[in-house]
Amino acid sequence: MKIMQNRMDRGFQRYQKEYEEKALEVLRSGWYILGKELEAFEKEFADYTGAEYCAGVACGLDALWIAFRVLGIGPGDEVIVQGNTYIASVMGISINGAVPVMVEPDEYYNLDASKIEEKITERTRAILAVHLYGQASQMDQICRIAQKYHLKIVEDCAQSHGACYGGKMTGTFGDAGCFSFYPSKNLGAFGDAGAIVTNDPDIARKVKIFRNYGSEKRYHNKVAGANSRLDEIQAGLLRVKLRHLEELTREKEEICREYLSGISNPAILLPKVRAGATAVWHQFVIRCKERDRLQAYLKDCQIDSIIHYPIPPHLSEAYQYLGLKKGSLPITEQYADEVLSLPLYNGMTPEECRYVIDCVNHFR
Asked: How far apart are CA 76 and CA 125, in angstroms?
């Protein structure tokens, strides 16, 4: 039995007729940028998250750096972020000339709130709270610290569509919530796409100006902005998938419950969900001290797995200028050496799930 780590084709096949009808509708409309599909999606996604406003952009990275830009964070400013994250989180800070200040993660793979204050300096301007793998960060403590030190909060929700903390959805705790709709996400488009949600009308207005060459009115440019627009076809297709997102999330939750109850190998550390938080399981990430050998064994079993992520940002060539060496963030580095994402996708069959469980349990 061959099992891929992700099967986006199965998600498409389930709603193929709806997707095709929407794509044709947009194509026949003759309007492909900043039209009624985007306007409708922005309203529907804002309603879904509980935010007042939503602005579509071209991708998740654009959502991050544009959010920091409109918040006025730039050269010399420091932004606190967890060390174990996809490098786009850090790039969203550094693109603006700001300095990413990396903090170790907690046992839930998110920012350890107890370690934030020791990293705050007179140059600290914001905290970037990443909700990694689909689990909400410890937002009550992060918000308390931000309020105490008068810091902005940007949330990286690229993997947490629908995840909540204390009953409140990720993306709505801080000044701006940044989403990616990359195809593999729980709410994935059919290409690159992203969005920023906020409860601040001024932030929403500035994002919508900035994403369109800095213009509010055509050819009247207020700032030197960007070309970062969520197109009509992607917006329309996202509207289709958003209607089914809760069902799709429940399906992934059921697969993960099977993993959690079925995997019993003592060499495997299973993921945990923080009390008061929910996980939408963008990835099912286990840890193993012999991770590379486990991955090779699973490959022999015809099971694909992926490491999210093998090189922490502080050890990447791109961020050597920060001066952080191997050993600077030992927990982050340990996670990078041990994490492995098992197959998880909508349309995964019970037989496929059981086969993965059996193979993991037989690893020695």
From this structure: 10
